[in-house]
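Re: folding output
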Amino acid sequence: MASVIDECPAPRAQHLHYLDNLRIVMILMVVIHHAAQAYGPADWWYVKGDQHAPVLVTLSAVGGAFRMSLLFFVAAFFVPRAADRRGDWGFLRGRLKRLGIPFLVGSATIIPTLMYVYYREYRGYPSISFPRYYLDVFLGFGPRPAGWSGPIWPDLQFGHLWFIQNLLAFSALYLLFHWLGGLLRRARPITTPARLIRIPDNRSLVIFTLTLAAVVFLVRIWYPLDQWVPLFEFIQAEPARLAQYVAFFTAGVIAYRRDWLARLPRSTGYTWLAIGVALTAVLLWTGTDTQLFAPGGASWASAYWSVTETFLCVGLSLGLLTLFRDAFAGHNRLTRAMAASSYTIYIIHLPIVVALQFAFARAGLPTLATFAAVATLGMVISVAVAVTVRRLPGLRTVL
């Protein structure tokens, strides 16, 4: 692994607009996913209501299977280039500025504000000021209120900013392996395994998928889906999907070093796209409320879902990378602006979506119409705000 991380790739003069376009779509899918949270999945959300649509539960399950793993892959693909160009310390400073500052600011403003609204709307305790809530409840300096409903105590969490935090941690691990690889190279020559040089074929992809699925199943025996834990008492992580995120981040680094995306045959990419689409169609037909679906535990249902989800993850991720490479490599002024603002869209979209969910709570629309309105307006407003915010002095280098 060290040699793969350290070896410099051939220069790439062309900007890969298809990866920009894919990242835009994936970020907008995150907006859609959060718009569906109030009307589909049963897990905790900032807004409560009576509207519910089973199809949104299935859509959330499908999106959750691959969306963030693919985002980790795309983010990792650009990590070696940035580290090679800036050097280790320059890269680390850039990551701390680009990821660390928005994470800290967002965690200190966006998330506690959303949690304060939830506290006032749904917890049933006497109203308190935001500063008092922030210190006593969000940070936990006050006593735990009687009959506390959770989901955790204290309310301190990072919400959707977990992705930025995890990406920063993965980038730091990349630098660690980069440094260790340098030490190993000075000690003795390193030969890259042949399997990491050749382009992945269907056989190797099946082996990778089954191995990853086995790891996912074993982790989920103790940590089912939607159970979040504080790694090292600070890093917010979902162990049930952490193996997928690590694997896809690592694959993104290797893909850059070995130029896998440009060399991957269409037949391989579209075969896996067909697998992902077929599994998606089956899930939309059956739904997730079946005996074959379990979020975790030592059961056949959990094993089945771990394998199904992992094949869906690899299939849709590899297939979409191939599809966008072949069919969506164009760009225009709008796509370039959205690509430049995609990171900002991710950071600022959540309060916009939650505000829209509150605004439509009493509109009397059918559930799917409410979801469609929140998702559409959430995407449009998030893009408009993000593009505008990045034009403010001093923010472009951070956002």
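--- second protein (sequence, then structure) ---
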Amino acid sequence: MKNVCLTWILLLGCLMNPVQAETIKQHSTALFYAPNLPVELLSQYQRVIVEADNVKPEELTALHQGGASVLAYLSIGEIAPSRKWYKSVKPAWILGKNRVWDSEIMDLTNPEWRHFIIEELVAPLAKQGYDGLFLDTLDSFQLIATTDEARNQQAEALTQTLNEIRTQYPQLKLVANRGFEVMPHIAPLLDAVLAESLYAAWDNAHQRFHPSKAADTEWLLQKLQALQKEFKLEIIVLDYLPPEERDVAEKLAKRIEKHGFVPWISVASLDIVGVGMKPTAPKTFLLAYDSVQESLIPPLPYAAVEAALSKHGYKLHRHDIQTGLPIQALTGRYAGILSFLPFETQSKAYQNWLLQQHRAGMLFQALLPPASLPDSASGKRK
């Protein structure tokens, strides 16, 4: 898969001549939707887009203290049943169904829905201290509205909604996810536009990564460059690659930058520290240990390990597997995983977790020979 992705990306890079944008101020940008934010790494970016339901108040504060501007995800045109406020939605606000994503498509012309967006969704985010909004599903009504009149009504209602947000919360930055069909209506209200899958995409139906088709890349490039030229908008590109292809992601990010766009290369779940405009090499190693097992043996030389790492500018984070294994993706979050734990005598849960992290590109270093990965994991980093 790696060779296929790299070949296609390099081929497309040869076909598409980069066009430098007019001077538009760019902001390094990261997207991270999972809980337990790696604040130290994310705060190196000027702009961080998050899923507010997964952010603790102290994490938001820490991001601000680190100098990042934090934007909250907000779906305008669709809602998913998983949203905690889903039961507050009235049937009259729903235009139809998006069966691909199992979500409801909302009627933007309904004044009650627009009021709910502003008073029940935007107002709390502004109060919590978010610096802006990442606006998604802006033109979902296109799936339901079948006439020019119906589409124009929805577009006008969308514009009215964004105007009201701008009026009531002028301090909020607004970034739109695509929305090309309604862009002539809303572009003057935006600070930036994000587009996915310029060169590398994710197929949700088949759960696989794949290179974007050359024709799709050319079409999207033209759209984005037109937005830059006509509306002087900052462009963010979100592309998708497997986490183990971080070297490919770095090349792809540079390619995107040459177009005058701000890159972020991640996975579809946006739960890893991806590759962006600013390097964020992690400086912390995770050390997995077992407090129960190690209470029965002589003390292990953790202090020596920590001292050795410190000499090279690294930190050590000790994690007791008795408290559970980290459920979040560790790619990009840690420089690697260290352990004294004998692999073969550990639980299947530990073995599967370590192998999964290793397959995802995480460096693993056994601190004693029995902690090494089995030969079946050879070919990967140990």
